[in-house]
Amino acid sequence: MRVLGIESSCDETGIAIYDTERGLLAHRLFSQIDMHAEYGGVVPELASRDHIRKTLPLIEEVLADAELRTADLDGIAYTAGPGLAGALLVGAAIGKSLAWALGIPAIAVNHMEGHLLSPLLETPAPEFPFVSLLVSGGHTLLVDVKGMGEYEVLGESIDDAVGEAFDKTAKLLGMPYPGGPYLAAKAELGEEGKYVFPKPMTNRPGLDFSFSGLKTFAMNTWLASEQNEQDVADISLAFQTAAIETLALKCKRALKQTSRTRLVVAGGVSANKALRQTLNAMKNIDVFYPRQVFCSDNGAMIAFAGAMRQKAMDKQPIPTFNVRPRWPLDELRPPENP
Ligand code: KG4
Ligand code: ZN
């Protein structure tokens, strides 16, 4: 079964084709970052307009890469949320229309499920069950994953997402948007122990996160410093270390609480090298990540999640039908749009 995936929830247009027999056949990504960097953040209307320009050409390119025609597709998966409404509507409208025209199913995919399943595109793929740490610009989530679609949120950020805190701290230190990768690079030049930042919400039980205080701590340290290049590096390192150690500590707690031995990490911040080093050092735990290019938003994870959902649906028995010899009028409900 071959499923075309369309990702358009934010500032990346991602298109891919996943084949349940042969794996990932092709993927293409267009990042709008250069366009938004000028404004210091994503401008939703510009994002939607650019998705309109890029989606169809990228679909054509991906089909050509995979040497397929639209008639060879068995389903179209599109990101239905969470994300920017206008941007989501572009992918949904194109995905649904194409599916209707081809007479194949359109599968609405949750963007976070896409991230969560993205390490399953790798070899070896993690087996269910596992604990998942989802770290992106919009979310910080710890999830107990029992199987496909069986998710229990164990903890989440009560304020800024970790990627957002990286970006805001980077901005304060004069780095371009999105600053996470720049801050990570600067941290490599920092002097260890020059500054030690607090690890928010680690001295009390629970699996929720809070990162906005860490960002404020970074700001106060910056304002009290000489504000030179070495201060940028030292503050970057102190911020990154506190954020990572907080994430690692909560992961350990979540694994213990659920008695899982597998940890799956995904989302933009999972590209962070220091985070990977810290998590890989955990004893008796197998850690899985998506490849670098699939840490951020991409079409492959949407095609994959869509294919898994469609495959599971196909396995369900053909719905039976009932007639009702007795059917009181007052059990009827108004018609609903699906
Ligand atoms: O998953 P993603 O591409 O988009 C969202 O759905 O949010 O995540 C983007 C986030 C941004 O905040 C970006 O700064 C952060 O991931 N990020 C990083 C690194 N690479 C990307 N943060 C820290 N270290 C990195 N190496
Ligand atoms: Zn994302």
From TrEMBL:
HAMAP family: TsaD
Cofactor(s) it depends on: Fe(2+)
Record flagged with keyword Cytoplasm: yes
Signal sequence, renumbered to the chain: none
Binding site for Fe cation: 111, 115, 297
Region (Disordered): 317-338
Cofactor note: Binds 1 Fe(2+) ion per subunit.
Compositionally biased spans, kind Basic and acidic residues: 327-338
SUPFAM superfamilies per the UniProt record, alphabetical: Actin-like ATPase domain
InterPro entries tied to this protein: ATPase_NBD (IPR043129), Gcp-like_dom (IPR000905), KAE1/TsaD (IPR017861), Peptidase_M22_CS (IPR017860), TsaD (IPR022450)
Molecular function GO terms recorded: iron ion binding; tRNA N(6)-L-threonylcarbamoyladenine synthase activity
Domain spans labelled Gcp-like: 24-304
Name of this chain's protein: tRNA N6-adenosine threonylcarbamoyltransferase
The enzyme's E.C. designation: 2.3.1.234
Keywords, comma-separated and alphabetical: Acyltransferase, Cytoplasm, Iron, Metal-binding, Transferase, tRNA processing
Species this chain originates from: Methylophaga aminisulfidivorans
Top enzyme class: transferase
Record-linked Pfam families: TsaD (PF00814)
Family (UniProt): Belongs to the KAE1 / TsaD family.
Membrane-spanning ranges: none
Catalytic reaction list: L-threonylcarbamoyladenylate + adenosine(37) in tRNA = N(6)-L-threonylcarbamoyladenosine(37) in tRNA + AMP + H(+)
